[in-house]
Fold this protein.
Amino acid sequence: MTNDEVGLIAGGRFGEVILRKDSGKQLEIGQLLVYEKAEKKVLFKVYDLVHSSTLPQNAIDMAQGYVREEEGPPLSIYDMDEKISYFTKGLLKPLIEIREEGSGTQILGPKSMPSWWEGVREVRTSDLYFLQGDGTYLGKLRNGSRVMDIDIKLPTDKLIPHHVLIAASTGKGKSNLVKVMLWSIANEGKAGAFVIDPHGEYWGFHEKGLRLLGEKAVLLSPNPPPGGISLKINVRSLLPDHFSGVSEFTEAQREGLESIFRQFKQKWIEELLSDSQESVEGVKPATIAVLRRKMRLLLGLGDNDEGSGPFSTDLGEETINSIIKYLDDRKVVVVDTSSLEEGTELLISNIVADLIMKKHQRAKAEGLLDSIPPVAIIIEEAARVLSEGVEPNVLKEVAREGRKFKVGLIAITQLPSLIQKELIANMNTKIILGNEAKSERDALVNSSAQDLSNEEQEIASLDLGEGIVTSSFLRMAVPIKVPLFDSLVKAEQRDRPKLAF
Ligand SMILES: Nc1ncnc2c1ncn2[C@@H]1O[C@H](COP(=O)(O)OP(=O)(O)OP(=O)(O)O)[C@@H](O)[C@H]1O
Ligand SMILES: [Mg+2]
């Protein structure tokens, strides 16, 4: 027996192995354990803990009654060695089988079960080296509430096009994780990423943020600080499709947008906004009036008013193209929308996503897709645009088709249950952080790449920054601890003192 053994196999069945915990050893939900025999190891996870005793329950109840109510010792028959009579059982779920063979380490789905009386030990870092890889950094391997020195990274070129879903209740560390991922993506330099920043938290105007990436990150803002780029988008970049999912339009209004676009092409928004344009063939004047009001609001543009918003009728013709160019240069592009309406923020995501998709589709048709990097589009509160009730839109198209063109979503949500089933199934990597609502946990468990049944308790009790990653690029659901972005950056500053931050 090694001294990191925690107990013995004491029954159960394949997916629910029972471990009798040794006294003096600690077990917790989510802890990883290993059963090892010859060249084979089975990795288990503790998914439940149960108190057990060799004594019948009514006898225990009576003995406890004597102790608590009579202040006397229990009857001598029950006064047995506590370590023998009372113990804890752990319920274990097999995750994978690891076989060390002449040709190297082989990772297989679990198929066998350890026998009665076999010992099970704590996991060692050396058991799990195979989980270490290259790519986008998500955090360290987590063993229950402890952290192991194994970096969990997923291959960026696969991760991004196959989409990522990050799901958690509010304040559980979604934005922090996205910052950690973008930091890693930018430093690796294999992909571009586009992120809308409604709260200034990604760029970090006054604290640590992606601005510390230096030249690997670009900021566009309506009020750019020194070094930032002014966010001005020419209205001629807009197409009717960009408004889908942004604001509600009736059937007549949607047809109206299409007709106006057909008649005026690039100048359609200018014509629609101009009061002199009272009638358009096939569109009722009342519809034009409503559309004009809506557009002015969304674009922040009055009649002869350039406004202080991000849209312009004469400036910014190259803005979207330059964003696409930065993404092609594998930079992280942050758009500060803290002073803008929610609809405007979605509109900008749609325009950029549409242009990226078109560029990548063209590249594929010309056989040039291999020469351009994948692009990630980060979308906060993804249920706003990806849920069942929302009309088809550009971001839904990315979720559905983007993989073929190396364009992927990193979709963040508190409400995975609202995201259209077909789209959530397309998101091959799911990062689950703490989630209090059972309905939301169920939606994640039911759509994950690995079987998460029995892991509900762990998901429900995840602390800040703790998560579980399921992915078609992993052999098992991997528990992680995401570092605090500030600590990650601080550690890198310490390790690389020559870099100016
Ligand atoms: N991995 C972590 N380790 C330690 N603390 C963390 C971690 N992640 C987040 N925090 C702390 O929790 C706070 C909230 O995190 P964050 O803003 O990332 O949550 P969120 O899920 O994006 O919240 P919201 O739903 O409001 O957008 C952060 O300000 C930070 O202090
Ligand atoms: Mg957040």
